[in-house]
Design goal:
There is one protein chain. The protein is mostly helical. It has 2 domains: about 190 residues, no CATH class; about 50 residues. It is built from 13 helices and no strands. The longest helix has 29 residues. Its main location: membrane. InterPro entries: Brnchd-chn_aa_trnsp_permease. Pfam families: AzlC. Keywords: Cell membrane, Membrane, Transmembrane, Transmembrane helix, Transport. Belongs to the AzlC family.
């Protein structure tokens, strides 16, 4: 047992779990409130847990749940959830150079566990320590992802079981924006990143009048285009220099 804990990968796993501890401050109440809101909206415990385990993305789950309670068309619910989670595709492309040589099953599990917090912590860690080998990188990534994921499942279940005994208006609306600020802020390193973020914020506010949150879909698409175009422009400037 001691030799397992003293292995580099195990040490990185423990370090990842430690680095992820601050996120539990918002994950725990956020997950419990989601479970309570979902049951109050008419979902049973099995449906709530299936929602959390299959989607494992709080912001998309809340957006979809809100639209479902508003009787939005199914296509709008799905499109909104996909738009909110569109960033996962970019996360995957970004982290593939670090984890892409793992086995198929390991990559599949990493893809499932690839959400905001482990992505942010892992990319920062890998940039600071470029000499980490694959097993160490996997150890750190799963060390950040697994404890947060387990906490999300557990607190969602508790919220779903307690249902209406947990008030849904106890003021944890801050959880989503605070979490995203903590995740996104360290990654705004280039002009393209900042322009894309600013575009999305401005358009979400301007298009807030659109029904069923469809303004979010438009904002996400435009922000991606803006960021991509600025990247192209910056590459052309480099080539011309």
């Amino acid at each position: 047992m001691d030799s397992m804990i003293s292995s580099p990968a195990a040490r990185q796993f423990l370090q990842g779990a430690k680095d992820g501890l601050p996120f539990h401050i918002v994950i725990w109440p956020f997950a419990a409130i989601f479970g309570a809101i979902a049951t109050q909206a008419g979902l049973n415990v099995v449906e709530v847990m299936g929602f959390s385990i299959l989607v494992i993305a709080g912001s998309a789950q809340l957006a979809a749940l809100q639209l479902m309670t508003e009787n939005a068309p199914t296509v709008i619910v799905l499109a909104t959830a996909l738009a909110v989670n569109l960033r996962m595709g970019m996360y995957s492309a970004s982290i593939t150079p670090h984890l892409g040589k793992a086995s198929l099953l390991t990559r599949a599990f990493a893809a499932y566990m690839l959400y905001d917090q482990p992505y942010a912590l892992s990319t920062i860690k890998f940039e600071k320590e470029p000499d980490m080998n694959l097993s160490e990188k996997l150890g750190y990534f799963f060390g950040t992802a697994i404890p947060i994921g387990v906490a999300w499942y557990a607190l969602t279940l508790i919220g779903a079981l307690l249902g209406e005994r947990i008030p849904s208006d106890i003021g944890v609306d801050f959880a989503v924006p605070i979490t995203f600020l903590a995740v996104v802020a360290p990654m705004l390193k280039t002009l393209a990143h900042m322009a894309s973020a600013l575009t999305s914020v401005v358009l979400v506010l301007v298009l807030s009048f659109m029904p069923y949150g469809t303004g979010l879909l438009v904002a996400a698409c435009v922000a991606l285009v803006v960021g991509a175009q600025i990247e192209v422009w910056m590459e052309k400037r480099k080539d011309a220099a």
